[in-house]
Amino acid sequence: MKLTFIGATHEVTGSCTLLQVGGHNVLVDCGMPQGIDAYENVDLPVKPADVECIFLTHAHVDHSGHLPLLYKNGFRGVVYATDATCNLCEIMLRDCAHIQMSEAEYKTRKARRAGNPDVEPLYDLNDAEGVLDLMRPCHYGEPIQVNENMAIRFTDIGHLLGSACVEIWLHEDGVQKKIVFSGDVGNTNQPIINDPKTVEETDYLVIESTYGTRLHGERHEYIHTLANFVQTTLDRGGNVIIPSFAVGRTQEILYFIRQIKNEGLVKGHGSFPVYVDSPLANEATSVFMQCDMSYLDPETREIMAQGINPLVFDGLRLNTTTEESKALNFDTEPKVIISASGMCDAGRIRHHLKYNLWRPECLILFVGYQAEGTLGRAIYDGAKSVKLFGDEVAVNAQIGFLPGVSGHADKQGLIDWLEGFKKKPELIFVNHGSDESCVGFAECIQEEHGYNSFAPFSGTEFDMASGKFTSITQGIPVEKKTAGQPKSKADTAYNRLMDAVEKLSKVAKGSRGMANKDLLKFAGLIDSLAEKWSR
Question: Which of 31, 104, 300, 471 has its CA 20 to 30 A from that of 292?
Answer without folding.
Answer: 31
